[in-house]
Design goal:
Largest sheet: 8 strands, antiparallel, barrel
Number of helices: 5
Structural class: alpha+beta
CATH topology: Lipocalin
Helix content: 10-25%
Oligomer: single chain
Radius of gyration: 20 Å
């Protein structure tokens, strides 16, 4: 075993252009790869996201691409929010780039608007188990109309959903969820 003083460690990190924190938080590639292998979300490189916008009184479609770089243990993502169709995702109203942090039970996304970097979005969703291709999540950030913090419920799928699977009442916050919000003063999704 070799011991090293902190100054020497800093010098090595400087020479290698590596943040010193990476020396203490390093995960072996096979550990991260095993997590990706068991997480159905990361077996796909495209995700389809739906939510109900009460301002527009309609279901909004969004699209996310995933770039999984196992060699660097990084999952990057690009989020095309509010698109006319999945074929025209480049015509999105909002364009974000960010990263995903997968865990066994849940995945987090941190996204930055590429037109206005001040605007950030966060997503949190439960990882689907077994052969499920759909899961619920919460998206939060700053609304543009009105300008205020927001949180909304969304449905994520590994394949596009047909109209029969996309009912407005399923995407809207339910009476049970409103009841929970009043009792607990927090938004919990009724799975």
């Amino acid at each position: 075993m070799i011991t090293i003083d902190i100054q020497t460690l800093e010098d090595i990190c400087c020479a290698l252009h590596v943040d010193i924190r990476e020396m203490f938080t390093y995960k072996k590639p096979e550990e991260q790869s095993a997590l990706f292998a068991h997480n159905r979300i990361f077996s796909r490189n495209k995700l389809y996201i739906y939510y109900y916008d009460g301002r527009k009184k309609s279901i909004v479609k969004s699209y996310m691409t995933i770039q999984n770089n196992n060699s660097q243990n990084v999952v990057s993502c690009t989020f095309y929010m509010d698109i006319p169709s999945f074929e025209e995702y480049d015509q999105c109203a909002f364009y974000y780039i960010g990263k995903m942090d997968p865990f066994d039970l849940v995945t987090y996304c941190t996204l930055i608007n590429q037109v206005n970097p001040m605007e950030r979005l966060g997503m949190c969703f439960l990882n689907p188990f077994h052969h499920n291709v759909k899961t619920w999540g919460i998206m939060f950030g700053i609304s543009y109309r009105p300008i205020a913090p927001f949180a909304l419920k969304f449905l994520l799928s590994t394949a596009p959903l047909n109209e029969n699977e996309l009912l407005e009442e399923n995407l809207m916050i339910t009476q049970d969820e409103i009841k929970i919000m009043k009792q607990m003063n927090m938004m919990l999704l009724n799975q």
